Amino acid sequence: MIGETTGTCKSGSHRSFQRAMSYHPWRQFLRQRSSVGLSGAFTAAGGLVYANRAQAPPHHWHNHDLFSQAQNARVSQVAPWQANNQGVIQIPNAGLPGEVLQAVENYAAFLQSLLGQVIAPSAAGTVIYDPILDQIVYGASGVAFNRPRQELVNQRLDQFAHFAGGTLVPGRGPDECAEVHALNWALFLGCQEEDLHVWTFRVNDMRPLPRCANCQITLPWGDYAKIWTC
Ligand SMILES: [Zn+2]
What we know:
- By secondary structure, this protein is of the alpha+beta class.
- The chain is built from 7 helices and 4 strands, in the order ααααββααβαβ.
- It has one domain.
- Bound molecules: zinc ion.
């Protein structure tokens, strides 16, 4: 047992019991490395990222909570996510667990060190945080699943058999997105969707990245504690 819970998830208030989590950079680095299928041979290079973290936030970190205006039409469908007078939508971060941003910042620095090598120049990264089970997991787009495919993920992906070409995004399968890889790992650890906080970003510019048409099916909005990046 992990502790008592209060409230219910489906009414919009997720379970409120949370462990006090301390973020362990090295432990999280090992997970970040695993998310892209790298093993010990890469530890030295990745370790440097962490050794230098105090001096080197990821490039374009100042963009991390500011949507690209190309995404406004999609993002403004969510009530608190509204453009300011410059037309820029900033994520309202009240209630955002601090672990999420810390993990996003570190994972982004790690992924930026792999751009054009292990991951594509246009790759996305996802951080999923579960405050109930005290877990942070990661996913990058265009890499292999790093854990066995979970039943729920298979169920969601099976739905794409109804669509021409098996996808709603031409040229990209529903199993390729960063979100799906992170979700699969969370489920592998026994996480419940209703507890999860999700944050997805474009690695090269740090912009928050709303779910694509495929991910709107594989990660349905109402099933989660919060998808911070829509
Ligand atoms: Zn997607």
